[in-house]
Structure formats: C-alpha cells, structure tokens
Amino acid sequence: MAKKVALIQGNTACALGAVYAGCNFFGGYPITPSTEVAEVLSEELPKVGGKFMQMEDEIAAMASIIGASLAGAKALTATSGPGVSLKQELIGYACIAEVPCVIINVMRGGPSTGMPTGPGQSDVQQAKWGTHGDHATIALVPASIQEIFTETVRAFNLAEKYRMPVQVLFDEIVGHMREPITFPEPGELEIINRTAPTVAPKDYKPYDTSFGDVPPLAAFGSEYRFHVTGLNKAQDGFPTTKAEYVDAEERRQVRKVESPENAAAIESNEEYLCDDAEVVVFAYGSTSRSARYAVNELRKEGIKAGLFRPITLWPFPEKRISALGKQAKAIVVPEMNLGQMILEVERVTKGTCAVAGVNRVDGDPLNPGEIMKKVKEVM
Amino acid sequence: MSYDYDKWLRPGKLPHIWCPGCGHGIVMKGLIRALDICGLEKKNTAIVSGIGCASRLPGYIDANTLHTAHGRAAAFATGVKMAKPEMTVICCGGDGDGTAIGGNHFIHACRRNIDMTYVLMNNHIYGMTGGQFSPCTPTGAKASTTPYGNPDPIFDISKLAIGAGATFVARTTAFHATQIDKLIAEGIKHKGMAIIEVVDDCPTTYGRRNKFRSVIDMMKVLKETAVPVAAAAKMTADQLEGKILTGVLYKEDKPEYCEQYAKVIAKAQGA
C-alpha cells in the first residue's frame, strides 16, 4: 500500500508528529505564528482520547503540561518567542524536577512583541540560557516540513529518554511553508517512553541515581507515591540544602545531556559537501535552505564550499565544528538574528579559522546571494 | 470520632517549618481529617501547592505531592486532573501565592469548574519572605513594605472565587479548627471547583508589626470576627462591619470540566 502523502504546512506537520509520538495532552495559549499547532491538536487529540487545553496564559500552559506529564501523559505546548519568555520560569522547573515535556517555539522576531508575522531566529540562545540557573538544554531545529514531523517525534523521544523538557525551534518560514510530506506508518519511527520504576513502591526514589544519570519516573496515580519540588532536592525528592546533594544533583542533570557520550547520542547534523570544504556555511532552519543553494552556486564557481546544518542545536555540535574549524579556512554563519550561534562557533573553533556572520533582522529571509557574497569576502 | 493522622503523615518529615503559633499546622490537621472523612486512597490523591509557608504543606502528606512554582498550583493541578480525572486533586497555599502572582490561574480554575479543592490559607501577609504586604493585608496595616500603613484595598478571596465561577465556596478560620475538616471534606465531595478559605494568623511577620501581643490575641480576633452565615442573615449591616462570614458561602451544581471534556472526546470520536 502506498504511503499517505499530503501537502501541509510546518505547524500542521508538528501537530501530526506529536500525535504520532503518542502525545495525549496539549496545554497552550494562542500566539502567532504557532497557533495552527494548537488548532490542529484541538481537533486531533480528542479523536485519540487525548486532551487539548487552552489555558489562561503561557505560564499556565507550561504548568499544565508539567502536571499532566507527572500524571503520566506525553505533553506538549506550542508558542513563539514572547510565550517562551513567559514560560522560562517553568522550563527551569521541568529541568530541575526532571519532567519530560516538549515545547514548540515557532520563532518570530523580537525583542518583545516584535514582528508577530515575520520570521526570526532570535530565540536560539534563549533556548539555552533563557531560564535561570545552570541546566542542560536539548533544542532541535528542523528545516523542512518532513523534518518538523520527524523531529517532533524525536523531541518526545528525547524528553522521555532523558526526563527533561525538549524544545523544538523552527522559524515562521518553515512553520507556515507548505511542502509535501510522506507520513511514516505506525511503528516505522521509533517511539521511546520513559523508564518506569521496577523497585517496590516503598523503595522508590524519584531521583535514584543507582539506575544511572536518568532515574526512572513513576506517574501520579500509580502505586508509587512521591514528592516533586522545584527546590534543590536529594535523591528522595525532598528539599535539601546539603552541599553534597545539591552539587551532585546539579552536575548529574547537566551531565545527562552534555557528557561526551550522551551529547553524541543526542546530536544530529547534516553535512553537505563538507569533506573537502575550504569554507563551511553553518546554517539552521530556513536559513539552511538559502545556504544550500548558495553552496551549490559557489561550487559551480569553483569555490569549495560546504554546508553544516545542525538539526540538534543544543547540545552544540562541538566536536564536529572544532574539526571543521581546523579543516576549513573560514566558517560563515548566516542567521536571522544579529549573531547568536556564531558565538558558539567562535568559542568552539578557538581562532583556528575565520568566522563571519551574515545577519538579517528585518523580517525578510536571508537570500543565497547574501551568503555567497560573505563567503567570497572571507576566502 | 478519632482520626488517623499518622496514616497520612510522611514518616520522618516532621517537625514542620512553621513558626510557633502559626495556624498552618491547624489547617494541615484539618486537611488530614478531611482526607480521612472522605476515605481517600493515597494513590489517587494529589496535593499541589505553590510557594510560601503554606505551600510547604504537601511535603508532609503521604500522597502524590507536587510543590510547584510561586502562584502556579492551580495550573499544574489542572494538568494533573486532566491527565488523570479519577484522581482527587487538592491545591493548597497562601493568599499572596494564590491571589497575587497566582491570581490568573486561581480565577480560571474557578471559571472552568474543574473538580478540585483549593485550601487557601489567608494569613494576610507574605510570611516566608519576611512579611511584605499581600492583596489580603488589611488597609492601614503594617508590613515590611508598608512602613506607613498599607494604602492598598484588599481582595475578598471568597467573593473573588464566587465571582470567578467556583461552585463551592466556604470560609472558616484557624480558630475554628473543627470546622476546617468538615468544610474541606464537603469541598472534596463537591463535583466542581471548591475553594476553602481559611483565615489564618502569622504571628511572626504580621502579628509583631500590628500590635498583637500574643498568638492568643490573634486567635481571639479570628474568633470574634467570624460570623456564621446563618447568624449573619439576622444581623444589620452595622453589626456586620469588620466581620467575616464563615461556613458554606456558596454552592451550586454546574457542569464539571473533566466531564465536559469527556463529551468533547465522545463527539470527536463520532459518538
């Protein structure tokens, strides 16, 4: 039987990817340019017995998905930059309490209300550092409609596997663009669910590291009763200020994402013509589509250009960018912001190559010509 | 009737953090009696709080307990309840937590009439941060941030809850300990959003600054200002000046949110 194919927009693909992943709770608040995610889920979730809630504000939306997840649901929210700003407090809560959930950020410009209907990529550092305190971040940046679907599924898998919030960021261009998508069959994509405890209920500790850096998570309403708090806590989940517990817990929560082996498992990149590249364009989201065009044109002109496209933006692909920084003469970083991920590229390459940005914040996409011009300048 | 307090207390978690003379412990005992009266199962009971002295309550109770962020109890609890409607969900917290930073979540949980019970301990002050004025600090009262007397008018929490759509609203005080369990139990049994306001005392950060010489003086005020609704019906406006009404202030049967959403699911599935 032929697979189901459709011409849909990115936001719809995101909603359908969530349903495929087993999402059964959505808590949201209307905000451009992400509203279609909510609209589609308001129709689709009840069909599969799931719950759709339009909450009173962005903060409540984030709170509701954490609450639902603790009661065993696979929970999602969708918003844009201003909404993510409001959610930051509780994104931090989901980090420290280690509650799986997925946050979609369809990016527009900013700061503040900015240009609600214009595209932007200015939330990529906010995704990492937006909430206060040290914490690990997983953020994915799909660049096509098909990829929005699969990356939304992967976001749920990572959230469940690592017991934490996972953010999916795509700019308004990808969110509202329509492209053909081939829907995977049920069972075709791997679906990961959180590890449930196997110990006797009386022995259960929600942060028991004897099971590794990602402790099993029980659900409210099961035989396992436990306490959850946003305070620093010991392995039993109860608040503590004892230095040895606080330090160990904070380090573990970062290590579960950022240790070399875990980061390698979470990383996902596409490298296009990078093998012999003398100049590498580092680009993500819709900007990577212009960058690919630019690379093809530059190759025709005899310039050895390549495209490095992170699909996992955080944790940052340090090893590969470091290696490419030694191989290439320059890395060009086009972004629809005034230079955010370029800071990571500079940090990681440590001066081994030239690093130059191409930046736009006027609500128009970066075009291939602008990227080509910058590549020629740095060569 | 004797109550099984130990059954609901987590072993090893006492003593609690509350100051001597604080009414929160009285409320917690009342809540435990209510859990007992309702015959609830621990596994099906969730207690959700925000931040503040009163919000430390869930940590002492042996149930599914969730100590969230400041003001957010009702919003987290809504997620828990929607994911597992069969669970009994109880929120607790203070006046600043519930009606200032959490005011929006509070009124919208009331509006939805979702089947939860919210025990709001109104001690008129932000106790944990050292006694700043809250939306429930009486006008003219002293707080650490109203050294010249509080210029703000107050919220009447019960009226706020009724206005917002809660279908069971009751009020009592920390002095009226035996009424606390009865009202909370009635709230738990009520199908819909139940608000139980317990007017409470904070001797440490409120009493000290407002010329209460002892906890007993504060308790006396709670005793003397409380007027049961039935008695109030026979009193004049002048006689009711400065009093607070206690008992069940409002009760109404209205469609409950989880049940309403079950109908949405049935419709979406073509029933």
Compact summary:
With 379 residues, chain A is of the alpha/beta class. Helices cover 40% and strands 19% of the residues of chain A.
What does this structure look like?
The complex is a heterodimer of chains A (379) and B (271). Chain A has 379 residues and is an alpha/beta fold. Chain A folds into 3 domains: 5-182, Rossmann fold (3-Layer(aba) Sandwich), CATH 3.40.50.970; 201-264, no CATH class; 269-378, Rossmann fold, CATH 3.40.50. Chain A is built from 13 helices and 15 strands. A 7-stranded mixed β-sheet of chain A has the order 3-2-4-5-7-6-13, with helices on both faces. A 5-stranded mixed β-sheet of chain A has the order 10-12-11-14-15, sandwiched between helices. In chain A, strand 2, helix 2 and strand 3 form a beta-alpha-beta unit. In chain A, helix 10 (286-300) packs across helix 13. The mean pLDDT of chain A is 97. Chain B is of the alpha/beta class and 271 residues long. Chain B has one domain (14-268): Rossmann fold (3-Layer(aba) Sandwich), CATH 3.40.50. Helix content of chain B is 38%, strand content 18%. Chain B is built from 12 helices and 10 strands. In chain B, strands 2-1-3-4-8-7-10-9 form an 8-stranded mixed β-sheet, with helices on both faces. In chain B, strands 5-6 form a two-stranded antiparallel sheet. In chain B, helix 5 packs across helix 6 (157-164). The relative contact order of chain B is 0.14. Classes of the chains: A alpha/beta (379), B alpha/beta (271). Chain A binds chain B through residues 24-25, 27, 43, 46-47, 49, 51, 53, 55-57, 59-60, 63-73, 75, 89-90, 93, 219-223, 225-231, 238-239, and chain B through 10, 13, 42-44, 46, 48, 58-59, 62-69, 72, 75-84, 86-87, 104-105, 107-108, 261, 264-265, 267-269. Strand 9 (227-229) of chain A pairs parallel with strand 2 of chain B, so a sheet runs across the interface.
The figure for the number of domains of chain B is 1
> Could you give the order of the helices and strands of chain A?
EHEHEHEHEHEHEHEEHHEEHEEHEHEH
Estimate percent helicity of chain A.
40-55%
Question: What is the molecular shape of chain A?
Answer: globular
Largest sheet of chain A: 7 strands, mixed
The CATH class of chain B turns out to be Alpha Beta
| Helix vs. strand class of chain B | alpha/beta
From the spread of the alpha carbons, the general shape of chain B counts as: globular
Count of β-strands of chain B: 10
CATH architecture grouping of the largest domain in chain A: 3-Layer(aba) Sandwich
- CATH domain class of the largest domain in chain A: Alpha Beta
Low-confidence stretches of chain B: none
Work out the number of β strands of chain A.
15
Beta-strand percentage of chain A? 15-25%
Largest sheet descriptor of chain B:
8 strands, mixed
Q: Please tell me the overall pLDDT of chain A.
A: 97
Order of the strands making up the biggest sheet of chain A: 3-2-4-5-7-6-13
CATH fold category name of chain B: Rossmann fold
Q: What is the CATH architecture descriptor of chain B?
A: 3-Layer(aba) Sandwich
Distance between the termini of chain A: 51 Å
Classify the beta-strand content of chain B into a percent band.
15-25%
